[in-house]
Amino acid sequence: MYQNAQFKNSGNDEGDVLNYFNNHLRNLVQKNSGDNTFSIVQEECHDKDVPVRLKTKTKLRLTHSAHTISQIEKGFINLTLNMTLNFTTPYGGGDIKGKESSHLNYIFVGFKDAVEIIGEAYFWVDGKLVDSYHQQEMVRESFAYNCIRPRDAKTGVPHSHSLWENVQMMSPNVCGCYIPLEAFDNGAHPAIKMELIIPFTDQLALQAWRLYPNRILGQVEEEVKFVLDGLVWCQIQPQNVAEVKKFWDFDPKKEYSAPLLPITNHFTQIGNSAIVVASVANAAAITTKQDNTDEFGDGLYTALSSVPVETEERKYDVNGNASQGSINYGLQKYVSYKLMSNKLEFDENSVKIDPCHTNCAGFGIKEEVNNALFQLLNEPIIIPSQELTRYQFENTASSSGFTSLSKSVPLRNATNITMMFPSHPNDFTVFKNIMYDGVRLVVNKKAYPETDFENTYDARFVQYQLMANELDGCIEPTREFMESISRPLIMVDEKDFVPSAGDPAKHQRFLMCPFDNTSFGINFQLERGNAGYVFDGLDSGSHSVTIEFRGKPLARDKNDPYLYPDLKIKLKDNNPDQPMNIVELDPTINPQAPEMWICSDTYWTWSIQDGVKYYNRGVPAGYD
Fold first, then answer.
1. Consecutive sets of 10 residues in the chain, 624 residues long: mean pLDDT of each?
2. CA distances for 144 relative to 147, 148, 274, 357, angstroms
3. Could you give the CA distance from residue 111 to residue 126 in angstroms, rounded to a whole number?
4. Residue 416: which of 624, 114, 148 has the closest Cα?
């Protein structure tokens, strides 16, 4: 197929052989402009002594004076985050520790993307502030940028991104750490640390920076403020932990059989509740699951794992002599898992960052090349960039959805508008599908798209989202992003399932999801390309335009996953086949208002006359 040949970069070389030799093979080896002085220099955060505390600003060098040319695309920040954690409902002595399956209970704490530890940023060049750049929404901007990056861009940098499939298999290639639940025994506050790697180009403002002539234009520093608003956590399925431990740390004296538990099977924002294991109980050999439920069920869901227990049965003849014996495998040995809703928090006073370094890559160039580059920079070079602006609506959702959700704001080269739907006040990087239909955005009386989305999960919706995020074609999105925009959270049609006893009715909530689905947003494309290279978005100048969002929920009442996002444990007297239920909203607490994240084309200029400048609005001369 032509597309496959094009993707392999082979084109039609097999046809035009002469062109292949002239235009391809002759250019495989490039002329060397360097002077054989490539190096990577590690720099301290020089204006603050380590450890750096939370919510304090510090400057990080992105270039080094030993280099003539800085390779920004190869530079990165490495830091170690230290803090203590605690659960709001403490574990008592023996709840987890000392039981046969206690070693299978772990939680993960970390970031979806390591760059989300930066909450605010400025840039300085040779000690002078780039006064037109100040991003106070770095956590949300970094999440929006990195969640739509292709999978291969996130797997090749260790400790920079936490893909859900890696977390669930306890891979070391994540930006976080794994903590045994035993560490929280007796209400303990375990101290943890995690190493983070932040490539410079994981930041939206620097996405197009590659080679920067720092010897000519000046040394670049970034002033940042570290925050933990983007921290996420989850419990790992004990079944998955068992698989990993059997391979790496097998001990024949330990139990490795574990069930698939109905714990919260996705990332949860720090400070929010999730369903986790409350206690593990060892049980004597018993014959049925029902017996075990009676013995250990006390109002929380009890999950069971079993190991066959051998018992010997012998028969005797009339003279009392033993005949052939038999082995009975009928008895089962059970381990009981009890679940609860718990909330993980960190002690803000314990948070410190030590060490904190930047690693600056670069090289020198030959004198004639440097002189030619100096002449070239007399005319400004334009580097494309983008910036996210966040607006919060005043209205919240009702049982009928959004009929007239609107806000008036000015637009500046807006490439796309993404509607985000937080479920809690502190949701920064965790957003689930709202399960709406009849969805449409109206900007200054023009509809995007012209025909409403029938729902927020079908094939047309998914294709629109992939196109709007430049993920259509041969680029592979991450699995959690695909699950977020395509996985229904409710029963959308009874005919999709084979009828049997206990099957849910239409629009009933699914209480479990087989994969993380917390990267949901509805992206409305406003220009033909969203890569930041074409200034073709909407611009209203200094005037505000009205932006309206419309949509209604597919499900009502407690089956609406947007109004009722959380789960709780059912008491054992209720239906044992449905161990969880949706938490009812406290009438004193209002649902969260939706947010509008507007991505705008911006640009940098590099020149001898003006140095490094950032333009947060407008179009470069000659490009309109």
1. 52 72 82 93 83 92 96 96 96 84 93 98 96 96 95 91 96 96 94 97 95 96 96 96 88 80 94 92 49 36 48 50 48 72 95 94 95 94 95 90 90 95 95 95 93 95 94 88 94 62 70 90 87 81 93 91 86 55 76 94 95 93 84
2. 6, 7, 23, 25
3. 32
4. 148
Give which of 479, 556, 466 is closest to 518, Cα–Cα: 479
Of 207, 203, 208, nearest to 222 (Cα)? 203
447 burial via Cβ count (<10 Å: 0-12, 13-18, 19+): middle
Per-residue DSSP letter, 230: T
Q: Is 324 exposed, middle or buried (0-12, 13-18, 19+ CB in 10 A)?
A: exposed
Q: H helices of 208-362, where?
A: 214-217, 238-248, 289-296
* Contact present, 303 and 259 (Cβ < 8 Å): yes
Q: What's the CA gap between 233 and 277, in Å, rounded?
A: 14
Distance CA 511, CA 490 (A): 9
Do 223 and 119 touch, CB atoms closer than 8 A?
A: no
H helices present in 285-359, as ranges: 289-296
Numbers of helices and strands, H then E, in the chain: 11, 31
CA distance 130 to 119: 18
Residue with tokens 């069971």: 304
Cα separation of the two ends of the chain? 37
**Alpha-carbon separation of residue 409 from 124, 350, 545, 551 (angstroms):** 30, 40, 6, 20
Buried b or exposed e, range 77-101, using 16+ CB within 10 angstroms? bbbbbebbbbbeeebeeebbbebbb
